[in-house]
Design a protein that fits this description.
Blueprint (H helix, E strand, L loop, with lengths): L6 H28 L11 H14 L1 E2 L4 H9 L4 H22 L2 E2 L1 E11 L3 E10 L10 E11 L2 E7 L2 H8 L4
Antiparallel strand pairs: 1-2, 3-4, 4-5, 5-6
Length: 174
């Protein structure tokens, strides 16, 4: 059985096939063409964005909310190791402070610089400004150091460094 197409129909079918093939190629390459792999939609590098997101979750505190909600919000931006640190070291102290001072605050966070780059692990210095600081707080704006790690799904927080740890990054070397 032989299928016969009129020349005009053959040209039309070829044009449709070529157009379809080009559309498939364009759609499959669109993300590579239209987005830069090292910059997120916010214009920040993915590791900086991970640090910012984690710190925002960390400093968004509400004494009327469940302590588990705060933990799950922070853990959404943390590695397993980071989430364990939040649960074991930070949550008890922070929740006590939140309840005692009836804290309800959000914050804004700006990345400042990478203070250490070990490839898949980086430490970012970020500036945090609280919306509603509480009385015991030293200052409403503070610099915080946050360690982020590149994992299979992107960058996530490992931990926020303790005050004793940050001195080596903030003290100039001679």
């Amino acid at each position: 059985m032989k299928i016969f197409f009129y020349p005009e129909a053959r040209k039309f079918l070829i044009a449709i096939l070529v157009t379809g093939l080009l559309a498939i190629i364009f759609l499959s390459l669109r993300s590579a063409i239209l987005t830069h792999p090292s910059v997120s939609e916010t214009g920040m590098a993915p590791d900086a964005q991970a640090a910012v997101n984690a710190v925002i979750a960390f400093y968004t505190l509400d004494y009327t909310a469940s302590p588990e909600l705060w933990i799950s919000n922070v853990c959404a931006y943390a590695t397993d190791q980071g989430c364990n640190a939040i649960r074991l070291f930070f949550a008890p102290t922070i929740q006590t402070q939140v309840q005692r001072n009836q804290i309800q605050t959000g914050c804004s966070v700006q990345p400042i610089r990478v203070v250490e780059d070990a490839g898949n692990i980086r430490i970012w210095q970020v500036s945090v400004t609280l919306d509603h600081p509480w009385a015991d707080l030293k200052a409403p704006t503070q610099d915080v150091l946050v360690e982020v790690e590149k994992v299979h799904s992107g960058w996530l927080m490992n931990r926020i460094l303790f005050e004793q740890e940050i001195e080596r990054f903030l003290t100039p070397t001679h």
